[in-house]
């Protein structure tokens, strides 16, 4: 192969290599939202429609329409906006033909959005264009009055699955006179159920404490009543032992039986039936109550 052929082959090879798209720049809106409490990060969706080059804003729209964009305005981020794509829309890999939006649900993404431009082989949000469209259409003023509704919904999402009584009560107190989605009554019923369950747990805990105290009292009385000639049982710490009943290894305590030979204060001198050494002093408190 001559020098010209080699040069041509290298040129063709390099030209055929695809340039890996760069990741889109991080959204300054998302960065601003990250510094806020979760319940303040809510956005208000709005549709921007292009008709013969003229943009209008609406609270309803169809993102399967190639002339429609959907964005979210964030009240707590100075009413800035970001595109509101279905899941994965920000990270879609753009290929030839992907700039055409199909009627398939969920196809709306950065590749077929008019708000994005090609830059260095990548699709980048033209934020200045988005800001001009929002200003021209009066989008912020259109949805500003709905902010209480979206804040209410964001706060509800924050307590939707909680069992925290304080948080639920706070929501009910705040929105008892403003409940457009009719969630207060179900929340009140859930709160009643949570309080009932909490009462049951408290009662059970109190009863368990009483049972423990009663067992301890009986044990102390039993230990005090021990006398020479009584048979006592001491249980070991649980150990791993093979059980023929269930044919597997289980944790069980070993039981040692013995006869009380002598008593000196809190100590018992015991002659064991199944333990070495055969005779020893043990604390009376180690004896298991019957």
Number of domains: 3
From the N-terminal CA to the C-terminal CA, the straight-line distance is: 100 Å
β-strand percent reads 15-25%
The secondary structure category is alpha+beta
> What is the β-strand count?
12
**Count of DSSP H/I helices:** 7
CA-atom Rg in angstroms: 37 Å
Strand adjacency order, main sheet:
2-1-3-4
Mean of all residue-level pLDDT scores: 88
How would you spell out the order of helices and strands? HHEEEEEEHHHHHEEEEEE
Largest sheet: 4 strands, antiparallel
- The share of residues in helices is 25-40%
Morphology: elongated
List the helices and strands and how they pair.
Elements: H1 3-16, H2 28-33, E1 44-51, E2 54-58, E3 68-74, E4 80-83, E5 116-119, E6 122-125, H3 127-137, H4 139-144, H5 147-159, H6 165-175, H7 184-225, E7 231-235, E8 239-243, E9 248-252, E10 255-264, E11 267-272, E12 279-283
Antiparallel strand pairs: 1-2, 1-3, 3-4, 5-6, 7-10, 8-9, 10-11, 11-12
Helix pairs in contact: 5-6, 6-7
Task: Explain this structure.
The protein has 290 residues and is α+β, with helices and mostly antiparallel strands. The protein has three domains: 24-150, no CATH class; 162-225; 226-286, no CATH class. It has helices at 3-16, 28-33, 127-137, 139-144, 147-159, 165-175, 184-225; strands at residues 44-51, 54-58, 68-74, 80-83, 116-119, 122-125, 231-235, 239-243, 248-252, 255-264, 267-272, 279-283. The chain is elongated.
